[in-house]
Every structure is written in structure tokens, then in C-alpha cells.
Design a protein that fits this description.
The complex is a heterodimer of chains A (438) and B (554). With 438 residues, chain A is of the alpha+beta class. Helix content of chain A is 27%, strand content 30%. Chain B starts with a helix and ends with a helix. Classes of the chains: A alpha+beta (438), B mainly alpha (554).
Chain lengths: 438, 554
């Protein structure tokens, strides 16, 4: 405190006037206390090491344990140190991460708290702010550990089967239709028939028997699937403008998980907005105060005469995650689905052709959209002509779904109605479509 | 919210009850001891050191009372408590000062004090009162400040949800009390007190007896002889400054604890427990280190400061002089005052002012009565104050005091009754032992009635004198017969009491005149008859005693 310094100077002046030599001692003590506080506190704060350990992804309903380690690296003890971790109240379980501790030299302490993943999104954990000082209130300093982020995936509904058709010759999903047989999956032998490939003859078994026998292979299909997720709120009805897109995201996520578990390639493209990408463009992040969830940053609109390019500056065409197999790719898809925000965007029917330009022939394109209007169906029909395999999934409650199904069938693709969770029963059945795997 | 209450109680109890009152008392007493040392050097005959003990007691008591008043479990008025505290303190202080100066007032002093209550305050006591009041108020001020540093339950946020959030600044209203400002204020007060103590320390290094006795006139400080720093002053300086720093540390802990508790932080127990020990250790290390740093002499620097002071004084004086000259010229120019010849001196007639007659000094009785009333009121106030202080602390409970009073009253009543009964028994015994005494006054005889002679007229007085004599004589056996005239009755009286024959004639003559004539009876005449009546009365009484003796001889 500056008062202590002023006191020392004032005492000096008085003592000099009255020639009290002992005042030097008092001044030394006061200065000693002042200097101790001024010098030691910054040293303490500088030598505190902070780290945060936790699982950065979580599924809905999971409890994530966050472990914050605070280490005093110096030989000086810390009289008091307060550590406060900013955690959104919606996620917080229990008392929270707000502790006051004392440290001996070279001591380390762990602060653990839990958060619950209640809603999909991209959340900020932290920053961790520490403050420390001395015994006499001379100085108080702060330091911080930057915030980390937690991604909460959308709700996943387990599927046991999807029943999606595939035009690719090889794959991993067994099927009843003997369209393709995977030579990597022999399942038995049979008698040789005229027309069978000589390469498929099982010579060893044939030698033991007196007949020519050929290997039989498991018929499989390969699904390379692109999820086409329509999150344009203007295409949803007023009643389901919030729940509808969320349900669509749940279906997309569940499908992605199922396909990935079946070791199929899955991709994602959507006309929703990824606030993380947009925030990176703008250079600033905006998190909700109450929930800590990443939200869209506000940006003024600039009018341009062109069509689709006439969008808000910094916003490009809907991004795409091309179909790829593997868990790592699945995590990317789920992370995007966790963050995706609903915002006015490109109309679905206009967007479909552009979204599917770089796909392999025969790719399944699962269009998850609220309606099956004529425009959308026409666009999907174009995909059929291009050699793709579109599937229409309507996520809003619909009165005349049969009409849409008929339309779709006539245009060469399938249409399903999944307006509520019960409609997923066909995909959650206990029997499987194919044979057991080799 | 229970956790917050626990945290409040834990810190407040540990720091407030255990150490803080003692530290506050020590620093205040250290400050006062500086002043006491100065007084001791000036008046070495008075026992100022013993007064230090009383100051310690007062300081501790005042602190504990302040802490007790902060608790919510009492309903006593703080103003009444403070008032009673001061009354009792001053009373005890007076007794204590008499005790340490061995000057308890004697009988004559008590009589003088009774008449002139102001005589109870002498010079020593006046100084002591000032010092004691300083101790009380300073202690109360410090205790109040540190009480405010502690978190009060009323400051806790109402929303439980807010205590769970870890987001700073989220839904928290600022603490009601600015504790940073309180700590600043403490440092400022401590600094001012420290400066005062340093000044006292500086003054104490001079030979004050020489200064006060020799009347040196205007001299510089350097010419005064010095006696060095007294050990008591050294101790006072150490205690004040080191104790003050420790108190500052306590205040810091209280302020931090308030902030942490308010913001819902979980506080390690070790912090509270080790805070005092660690701050004491740190202070000890700093003090020990400072002890090894050489202490230089302040003479040279003092000379520099004195020179600076003189220069500043000269500059200020010069500026004032210049401004005064300018004002003079301005005013003289504006008013255009032309000097004139001074007129002849005015002869002042001696006027003897009329000195009003001083009122006669109040009589001794009046001053005695007023003084007694004052002391009764004061003693009653002291007793009430003591009882109030005791009862508010619950020692003893109210009920036993009432019972004690009732028991006392009953005992006194019982004693009075037994005494009265004994007197009655003695009276009846005496009467039974003396049967020949004059018969008790019967209904036939006239009963005494109290007559105020001064309210009677002269005529009635004369009549009273005669008739009372007749009644008295009748009680002695010379009963006046019905129809017997005063003249006829006179002879019987003379026969019985020959020694007062003339008086009997005179009294009878005056009675006849007052009773039967219409002449005006003057007051002088009544006054003339009165001694005659008294002689007759005396003779009749004597005649009664003579009669008892003669009866005994029969």
C-alpha cells in the first residue's frame, strides 16, 4: 500500500526534526514490509504453473471431470492463492471451481470439478483466473490460464440397420441382395457351375472331394454416404422451427454414427452455420453468458446484386466434409453437428446440385429436410440421373407422406418419413439385414 | 448458505475473539504510554506508571464490550451500555487514582466534597480522565472498524444459485461495505498515531524538567539538553508499530475472508490457521533483519530540516510582509487619508462604576443540601449503571436480584417488629412495677390536644394558661368543683402550692379579665402572664414528684 510508504516518509520527517535515531529501525521495518510485498508477490504469481486436463468431447448426458493442476514452482510459499474457473452455470455440477488455497514451496494441488453435458454445443471452460497476494495487502496480482473448449455431441439414437441401397461393388455391410460378393469374405463352398470363375475354385477342398468346388463369398454392399442436412429455418414450419432442425441434427448424427460403426465412409454437408468457423473469420468469439455456448457473432449485412454470392461478407457456401471412413472422421462430423447453428441460408433445392459436385459415382446421398416439395424432389431426381443414390428423409410431421413417397418412387429414389422417434423403429429393429460377418 | 455461515463464524471467531482484542488493546495502550511518559517526565511525583495498568484493563474491557455489542443475542441499548460504562469507569478511576496517590479524602475532605462536588476533580484526575476517555474512544473506534471488516450475514447474497456459479461478476451485487477503504482508514489512523508517538518520543528525549523549571525563553531545539530515549518509550514504539502491522494483517485476512465468502469460494482451513503464525513469522524475520541494519544519527539531517524550516518560514514571512505593504498602499490610496494634527488629549473623568452589591453567599446549609442531592443522584447513577452492566451480561440473573431485595426487606421488617414488641413488653413491665404512679388519664379528664400557642389571640392565650394550670392541678388532686369560681378555687391552689401563691393570684386575675371582661387584652399582657404560668406549671409538676415521695414514706 502506498500509505505505508507515505507513513515511512512522514515518520522520517518527524523523527529527523526531533532527532529520534530509533526511527530508522521503524522505517526499516515498514520499508521491509512494503518491499517484501512488492517484490515477492509478482515472483509468486509468475512461478505458478497451471494446467487443465479433461476430455474435450462428450456425449449428451455425460459427466465430464475437469482436473485443474496448480503448481508452485518457486521456493517461496504462497500465503493465499485464489483460483476461479469460469464455468457456465448450465453445465456446472456441485459447488464449482472456486477455491482459496495456501501453498508451501514446490507444492502442487489439484482442483477437480464436474460438468454435465446437457445440450449439444461448443462450450467454453474457463479461463482460470488466479489471484495471489501478501499478508499485509501491499500488492495483489492475477494470472490466468486461457479457456479451453468442450464439445457436446448431439443426441445419438442407436440404429441396428438402415436399409439404404448401395451401388458400390464392395463394402462391409452384408445384404440379402446378391448383387456383389466380396472376395475378401469367403463364407463356404458349393459345386462348380458353368460360368463360375476358375479363380474361385477351391483346389484344396476339391482335391479332397471328387468334385470341383468353388468358394462362395458374402454378398455385401458398400455405402459411401453423404448426409445432406437442410437447416434453413424458413423451410420449416413455424411450430417446429426450433425442434425440427434439432431433430434433423439428431437423425444426421445417429446415421453418421451407425455408418461409421459399420466402417462405411460418411460425409456431411449442411446449409447451417458453423459459428466456430464464422468466428474465426471475424476474429472474435462470442459465448452466451448463461450457458457458455458458442453463438454466432453479429455482423452487419452488405447488399450485393448477385445471387448466392450475395450473402453476408465472410460467409461462404455451405462447407462439406467429404465421405471418409474411420472414427476420426466421424468425430469431425459429430463436432460439426454439435456446433452447427440454424440460420437463414441457401434454399435447399438450389443448394443440392452444388453440394454434390465432387462425389464418387454411386454415393448415397441422404437428404434430411423438413419437406418433400416438388423442387426438392426434382433436384434429387437430377442426382439420380447423375448416378447418385439419393434418399429423402422428411423430418417434419407430414399429412400426405404417401404422395411424396409416390413422387419419389416415380423419380427413382426412396423417401422416408421420420417425424418423431417412433418412426425410427424400422431402423432400430433387432434383426439384421445381412449375414453374420466373417 | 450453511457453508457461508460456517465460514463467517470460523474466521470471525478465530481472529476476533482470540487475538484481535488483545492487539487492539496493546496498540492503544502503547500509544497512551507515550503520553504518560511525557507526563511522568514533567511531573515525576505522580504515579503515571500505575495508571498504565488501569489503561490496559479499560482497553481490554472496552474492546470486549464492543465485540459483545456486535452479537445479535442481546437486547441492550448500545448507548445505555456505553453511558453506563463511562460512568462506572470514571467512578473506578477516581477510586483508583486516590488509591495510587494514597490520597483518600478524610472526614473534612468528604464534608467539603459533599458541599462542593467539583472538588472531587483535581488536576491529576482531570488529566487522567482525558487519557482514559482517549483510550476508550480509540479502542471503540478500532474495534468497530475491525468488526465492519468482518463479513456480516446480512451482506450475503440472497440467491443460492449465485453462490454456485464460478463466473466472477455474475449476478453479484457489490459488497455493502468498502473494506478496502476501511483498511486504508486504518493505515491512516495508525500512521497518525505513529506520528504522535514519534513526537512524544522526540519530546521525551529532552530534559523537560529543566525546560519547565528554568523558563529558558526563546531557544532553539538544539540548545536543550537531552536525556535519550527511555526504555518505556522504546517498548511503546516497538509494540505500537509491530502490533499495528499485525493488526493490519488481521484486517487484511478479515477483508479477504469477507470477499471470498461472499463470492462462494471454498477456503482451505489451513489459510486461516496459518495466517497469523505466518504473518508473525514474516514480521519477526523483517524485524530481525532490520535490527542488523546500522542506525545512523539524525543530527545532520535534523540540521538540514531545521534550515529548510527556517528558510520556509522566512519566505512565508516575506510574502506576508509584501502583501501587507501592498494592501497598505492600496487602502491608503483609496481612502485618501490626510494626516491631521492630533487634537488635545481627552480628559477622562474618573468614573467609579457602580459595583452591584454581591449577593450574599449561599448559606452553608443550602450548599450542603445541593451537594448531597448531587451526590445522591450520582451514586444512584453509579449503582444503576453497575446493575445495568451486570444484568445485561446476565450476571446475576434478574430474578435473584429481586429475590435478594425481597429477602432484605422482609428481614428489616421482621427486625422492626421484634424491636417494637420488645419495647411494648418493657413498657408494660414498667407500668406493672409502678402501680402508684398517677392514674392513667381517664375519659373524664381532658385529653391533651396539641395547641399552637402562636395561632391563639392574646385573650385565648391567657385563658389557655389558666385552664391548663387548672387541668394540671386537677390531675394532681386539686380538682375544681362544678360551680366553683376561679377566686374560690384559687384558695385551694394556694393551699396546695403555697410557693407560687402570688403567681396563682396573678394568673387568676388575668383569667378573670380575659374571660369575663370585654376589655382588650394586649399581646404584651399575654407575654407577661406566660412566665407566671410556667412557674405555676413547674410548681405543680414538682408538687407531683413531692407527692410520690410522700406516698412512699407512708
Amino acid at each position: 500500500m502506498s500509505d505505508l510508504l507515505i507513513l515511512a516518509i512522514a515518520l522520517l520527517a518527524v523523527a529527523f526534526l526531533f532527532r529520534v535515531d530509533f526511527i530508522y529501525y521503524i522505517v526499516y521495518v515498514c520499508l521491509g514490509v512494503y518491499i517484501t510485498g512488492q517484490l515477492i508477490t509478482p515472483r509468486i504469481v509468475r512461478n505458478v504453473k497451471l494446467s487443465r486436463l479433461y476430455n474435450q468431447n462428450a456425449f449428451l448426458g455425460e459427466r465430464v471431470k475437469v482436473q485443474v493442476t496448480i503448481t508452485n514452482k518457486s521456493w517461496l510459499p504462497i500465503p493465499w492463492l485464489r483460483a476461479v474457473e469460469s464455468v457456465p452455470p448450465v453445465l456446472m455440477i456441485g459447488q464449482g471451481a472456486n477455491r482459496v488455497m495456501a501453498f508451501r514451496s514446490r507444492e502442487s494441488k489439484i482442483m477437480i470439478y464436474q460438468v454435465k453435458a446437457m445440450k449439444r454445443g461448443f462450450y467454453r471452460l474457463g479461463p482460470l483466473i488466479i489471484s495471489a497476494g501478501d499478508y499485509f495487502g501491499i500488492r495483489e496480482l492475477t494470472n490466468r490460464l486461457p479457456a479451453d473448449y468442450l464439445t457436446v455431441f448431439p443426441r445419438i439414437i442407436p440404429f441396428s440397420q438402415l436399409g439404404l441401397p448401395s451401388r458400390l461393388p464392395y463394402g462391409l455391410i452384408p445384404t440379402r441382395h446378391r448383387f456383389f460378393e466380396d472376395p475378401a469374405r469367403p463364407i463356404g463352398t458349393r459345386d462348380y457351375h458353368s460360368g463360375d470363375s476358375i479363380r474361385h475354385i477351391n483346389w484344396k477342398v476339391s482335391a479332397h472331394s471328387d468334385e470341383l468346388l468353388v468358394r462362395t463369398f458374402e454378398p455385401v454392399k458398400s455405402l459411401e454416404t453423404l448426409l445432406l442436412l437442410n437447416l434453413n429455418p424458413s423451410e420449416y414450419s413455424r411450430q417446429s422451427r426450433y425442434d425440427g432442425p434439432e431433430w434433423a441434427i439428431v437423425i444426421a448424427a445417429s446415421m453418421a454414427v451407425y455408418l461409421a460403426e459399420e466402417r462405411q465412409a460418411v460425409g456431411l454437408t449442411t446449409n447451417g452455420i458453423d459459428p466456430l468457423g464464422a468466428s474465426k473469420e471475424l476474429g472474435s468469439f462470442s459465448f452466451e453468458q448463461e450457458t457458455g455456448r458458442l453463438q454466432m457473432s453479429v455482423q452487419p449485412v452488405q447488399d450485393k446484386p448477385n445471387g448466392l454470392e450475395n450473402r453476408k461478407p465472410g460467409r461462404k457456401l455451405p462447407w462439406q466434409l467429404p465421405p471418409k471412413p474411420g472414427r476420426a472422421h466421424l468425430m469431425k462430423v459429430l463436432e460439426r453437428l454439435a456446433r452447427i447453428e440454424i440460420q437463414d441460408s441457401v434454399p435447399f433445392s438450389d443448394w443440392i446440385p452444388r453440394a454434390c459436385t465432387r462425389l464418387n459415382w454411386g454415393t448415397n446421398i441422404v437428404a434430411i429436410t423438413p419437406t418433400g416439395d416438388e423442387k426438392s424432389c426434382s433436384a434429387l431426381h437430377q442426382l439420380v440421373k447423375a448416378g447418385y443414390n439419393p434418399v429423402l428423409i422428411i423430418v417434419e410431421p407430414y399429412k400426405d407422406i404417401r404422395q411424396i413417397r409416390d413422387r419419389a418412387r416415380s423419380l427413382g429414389f426412396q423417401a422416408y418419413h421420420v417425424g418423431k422417434e417412433n418412426d425410427l423403429d424400422r431402423w432400430r429393429g433387432s434383426h439384421r439385414a445381412g449375414r453374420p460377418r466373417a | 448458505m450453511d457453508h457461508d455461515s460456517e465460514s463467517i463464524d470460523r474466521t470471525n471467531l478465530q481472529t476476533a475473539v482470540n487475538v484481535r482484542p488483545l492487539l487492539i488493546a496493546l496498540t492503544v495502550v502503547a500509544l497512551v504510554s507515550g503520553l504518560l511518559l511525557i507526563l511522568r517526565l514533567i511531573w515525576p511525583d505522580w504515579p503515571w506508571n500505575l495508571l498504565l495498568l488501569f489503561s490496559i484493563f479499560i482497553a481490554v474491557e472496552s474492546t470486549l464490550t464492543s465485540l459483545w455489542l456486535k452479537k445479535p443475542n442481546h437486547f441492550a441499548s448500545s448507548i445505555k451500555i456505553r453511558g453506563a460504562e463511562i460512568v462506572v469507569t470514571l467512578f473506578l478511576l477516581r477510586l483508583f487514582s486516590w488509591l495510587i496517590t494514597s490520597s483518600f479524602p478524610g472526614r473534612s475532605d468528604l464534608y467539603r466534597i459533599l458541599r462542593h462536588p467539583e472538588a472531587v476533580i483535581d488536576g491529576f484526575f482531570a488529566l487522567v480522565i482525558l487519557l482514559t476517555l482517549f483510550v476508550i474512544f480509540r479502542t471503540q473506534s478500532l474495534t468497530r472498524l475491525f468488526s465492519r471488516l468482518s463479513l456480516d450475514r446480512s451482506e450475503l447474497p440472497q440467491s443460492k444459485r449465485s453462490s454456485r456459479s464460478g463466473v466472477l461478476g455474475d449476478e453479484y451485487s457489490p459488497l455493502l461495505i468498502d473494506r478496502h477503504a476501511l483498511l486504508q482508514r486504518y493505515y491512516r489512523d495508525w500512521a497518525i498515531g505513529g506520528a504522535m508517538l514519534i513526537i512524544c518520543a522526540g519530546i521525551s528525549t529532552f530534559d523537560l524538567v529543566e525546560i519547565t523549571n528554568n523558563d529558558p525563553g526563546v531557544r532553539s531545539i538544539s540548545s536543550f539538553s537531552r536525556i535519550g530515549l527511555q526504555p518505556e518509550m522504546l517498548a511503546a514504539l516497538m509494540i505500537y508499530f509491530l502490533g499495528g502491522l499485525l493488526l493490519a494483517s488481521e484486517g487484511r485476512l478479515a477483508a479477504l475472508n469477507a470477499r471470498w465468502t461472499y463470492e462462494g469460494a471454498t477456503i482451505e482451513n489451513r489459510i486461516i490457521k496459518s495466517w497469523r503464525r505466518s504473518s508473525l513469522l514474516l514480521l519477526f524475520i523483517i524485524a530481525l533483519t532490520a535490527a542488523f541494519i546500522p542506525i545512523s544519527s539524525t543530527v545532520d539531517i535534523s540540521g538540514v530540516f531545521q534550515a529548510i524550516g527556517w528558510i520556509a518560514f522566512l519566505i512565508v514571512g516575506l510574502i506576508v510582509a509584501i502583501i501587507s505593504v501592498i494592501y497598505y498602499f492600496i487602502l491608503s490610496g483609496l481612502m485618501r487619508v490626510t494626516p491631521t494634527e492630533p487634537g488635545p488629549p481627552v480628559q477622562l473623568n474618573e468614573v467609579v462604576p457602580d459595583i452591584p452589591q454581591l449577593a450574599s453567599p449561599p448559606s452553608e446549609i443550602t450548599s450542603l443540601i445541593l451537594g448531597s442531592v448531587f451526590w445522591i443522584i450520582l451514586l444512584a447513577a453509579i449503582v444503576i449503571a453497575v446493575i445495568y452492566l451486570i444484568r445485561t451480561r446476565g450476571i446475576p440473573p434478574k430474578r435473584s436480584f429481586s429475590e435478594w431485595w425481597r429477602h432484605l426487606f422482609q428481614w428489616l421488617r421482621k427486625q422492626w417488629r421484634s424491636l417494637f414488641q420488645q419495647v411494648q413488653i418493657m413498657t408494660s413491665d414498667l407500668r406493672s412495677k409502678m402501680p402508684a404512679l398517677e392514674p392513667p388519664i381517664t375519659i373524664a379528664t381532658l385529653s391533651w390536644r396539641f395547641i399552637r400557642l402562636s395561632s391563639l389571640s392574646a385573650r385565648d392565650k391567657v385563658r389557655y394558661y389558666y385552664l391548663s394550670s387548672v387541668r394540671r392541678a386537677g390531675a394532681r388532686g386539686a380538682i375544681r368543683k362544678d360551680g366553683e369560681t376561679p377566686s374560690e378555687y384559687t384558695s385551694e391552689l394556694k393551699e396546695k402550692w403555697p410557693g407560687v401563691s402570688d403567681e396563682i393570684d396573678e394568673l387568676t386575675r388575668s383569667f378573670i379579665k380575659a374571660r369575663y371582661s370585654g376589655q382588650l387584652i394586649e399581646e404584651i399582657e399575654a407575654e407577661y402572664v406566660k412566665p407566671i404560668w410556667k412557674r405555676i406549671r413547674r410548681a405543680i409538676r414538682r408538687r407531683g414528684g413531692n407527692r410520690l415521695d410522700s406516698d412512699r414514706n407512708k
